[in-house]
Design goal:
Shape: globular
Radius of gyration: 18 Å
Order of helices and strands: EHEHEHHEHEH
Oligomer: single chain
Number of helices: 6
Structural class: alpha/beta
Distance between the termini: 27 Å
Mean pLDDT: 86
Strand order of the largest sheet: 1-2-3-4-5
Largest sheet: 5 strands, parallel
Helix content: 40-55%
Length: 143
């Protein structure tokens, strides 16, 4: 179902033709596909994109997460991005989470989701399919 698909688009990928990008993303949204603006905070980060594009979430770039919780500056920027996104009705995903301290701070700041090696390592597409497939119980045993 389209609701289970999230298309992540970087800010720089729609700079060339914003009208076409907005139309395409709106069509995907109308199908039920969720849109997330990836690497938010590292590219142009124009706040008008958040109003103009049919995104449902922003992804905080791993370069900001990497500095958490040690860097007061990265913490302040992350707090501001989370608050701004939530005030616009957008979800927030943090990428590049590698430590428990980062995850705990992100939770405390109200981040909605996290990705990174702390939570799981990248896998090949065929391995994901195998992981998601219903498990078969050995013959004669209940699942």
């Amino acid at each position: 179902p389209p609701e289970r698909l999230v298309v992540e688009i970087t800010e720089t990928s729609f700079i060339g033709d914003m009208v076409a990008a907005a139309d395409t993303l709106a069509a995907l949204r109308d199908l039920g596909v969720r849109i997330a603006i990836d690497d938010f905070g590292t590219g142009y980060s124009a706040l008008s994109y958040l109003r103009r594009f049919p995104a449902r979430a922003v992804k905080i770039d791993g370069s900001l997460v990497r500095g958490l919780p040690a860097s007061p500056e990265d913490t302040a920027v992350t707090r501001a991005v989370i608050a701004m996104a939530h005030s616009l009705g957008l979800g927030v995903i943090a990428e590049g989470v590698e430590t428990t301290a980062q995850l705990e701070l992100l939770r405390a700041l109200g981040c909605d989701e996290a990705q990174g090696h702390l939570l799981g390592h990248p896998v090949e597409g065929r391995e994901i399919g195998a992981r998601l497939a219903p498990r078969q119980a050995p013959a004669g045993r209940a699942a």
